Amino acid sequence: MRIVNWNVNSIRTRADRVLEFLSRQDVDVLAMQETKCKDEQFPYLMFQGVGYEVAHVGYDQWNGVAIASRVGLTDVEDHFAGQPGFHKDPEKPQQLEARALGATCGGVRVWSLYVPNGREIADRHYDYKLRWLDALRRHALQAPELAVYLGDMNIAPFDTDVWDIQAFAGATHVTEPERIAFAQLEEAGLVETSRRFDAGYSYWDYKGARFQRGEGMKIDFQLATPALAARATGGFIDRDERSGKGASDHAPVIVDYEV
């Protein structure tokens, strides 16, 4: 089973490109992040027309996650148990955001994740990010035997996961608390399968010609349960999808599993 995660950065802008990618790379399951649309705006018919079932959760023009599968799609959940919410005003209700979507595809429990960015270290969003990751860790402790948590984690776990660690001094994505939170996902029993096959970058900012200069970050991952990780047979980051007109600022992360 070929499972892919990809921050598409607006599915309505890139639907044709995503469909071409599904065909070209013979994808079984695609977990998408940052779809940037409400549920009723998602282009379901385009995916159904090429043999994919789709689940999506999106409340407005921000965030949004989806799963497209040609090997079945059942038991859909639009958030995970314990997932915290957020509002910039601490006195107002902290509302769930469209950042997690689970479904069973071909016997594998798949979670498409868009981890909060954190914005700045002094921002409430940074604390929200850490709480969100801790809730995810606790959820992963109860994962079924075959499960994968994948998507845009918004963390670079190692200095080598950014093009220049000095450029990130005082910034999010590389702080010790974030990296500890990522490591705790692995301590909870998840195995990072994607790095095993391709340790290169998965994201390049649009600004400053970062892609052309090779100045990227590795922040998109697949974390599988041990039983599923043991069945990972290969994978790569499709950097061709970061090039050309209309590209997302992220590249798809591909891992093959014997299921």
TrEMBL record:
<feature type="site" description="Important for catalytic activity">
    <location>
        <position position="220"/>
    </location>
</feature>
<dbReference type="InterPro" id="IPR005135">
    <property type="entry name" value="Endo/exonuclease/phosphatase"/>
</dbReference>
<dbReference type="Pfam" id="PF03372">
    <property type="entry name" value="Exo_endo_phos"/>
</dbReference>
<dbReference type="GO" id="GO:0008311">
    <property type="term" value="F:double-stranded DNA 3'-5' DNA exonuclease activity"/>
</dbReference>
<protein>
    <submittedName>
        <fullName>Exodeoxyribonuclease III</fullName>
    </submittedName>
</protein>
<feature type="domain" description="Endonuclease/exonuclease/phosphatase">
    <location>
        <begin position="5"/>
        <end position="250"/>
    </location>
</feature>
<feature type="site" description="Interaction with DNA substrate">
    <location>
        <position position="250"/>
    </location>
</feature>
<dbReference type="InterPro" id="IPR036691">
    <property type="entry name" value="Endo/exonu/phosph_ase_sf"/>
</dbReference>
<keyword id="KW-0378">Hydrolase</keyword>
<feature type="active site" description="Proton donor/acceptor">
    <location>
        <position position="152"/>
    </location>
</feature>
<dbReference type="GO" id="GO:0006281">
    <property type="term" value="P:DNA repair"/>
</dbReference>
<dbReference type="InterPro" id="IPR037493">
    <property type="entry name" value="ExoIII-like"/>
</dbReference>
<feature type="active site" description="Proton acceptor">
    <location>
        <position position="250"/>
    </location>
</feature>
<feature type="binding site">
    <location>
        <position position="249"/>
    </location>
    <ligand>
        <name>Mg(2+)</name>
    </ligand>
</feature>
<feature type="site" description="Transition state stabilizer">
    <location>
        <position position="154"/>
    </location>
</feature>
<comment type="similarity">
    <text>Belongs to the DNA repair enzymes AP/ExoA family.</text>
</comment>
<feature type="binding site">
    <location>
        <position position="250"/>
    </location>
    <ligand>
        <name>Mg(2+)</name>
    </ligand>
</feature>
<feature type="binding site">
    <location>
        <position position="154"/>
    </location>
    <ligand>
        <name>Mg(2+)</name>
    </ligand>
</feature>
<feature type="binding site">
    <location>
        <position position="152"/>
    </location>
    <ligand>
        <name>Mg(2+)</name>
    </ligand>
</feature>
<feature type="active site">
    <location>
        <position position="114"/>
    </location>
</feature>
<keyword id="KW-0460">Magnesium</keyword>
<keyword id="KW-0464">Manganese</keyword>
<dbReference type="GO" id="GO:0046872">
    <property type="term" value="F:metal ion binding"/>
</dbReference>
<dbReference type="InterPro" id="IPR004808">
    <property type="entry name" value="AP_endonuc_1"/>
</dbReference>
<feature type="binding site">
    <location>
        <position position="7"/>
    </location>
    <ligand>
        <name>Mg(2+)</name>
    </ligand>
</feature>
<keyword id="KW-0479">Metal-binding</keyword>
<feature type="binding site">
    <location>
        <position position="34"/>
    </location>
    <ligand>
        <name>Mg(2+)</name>
    </ligand>
</feature>
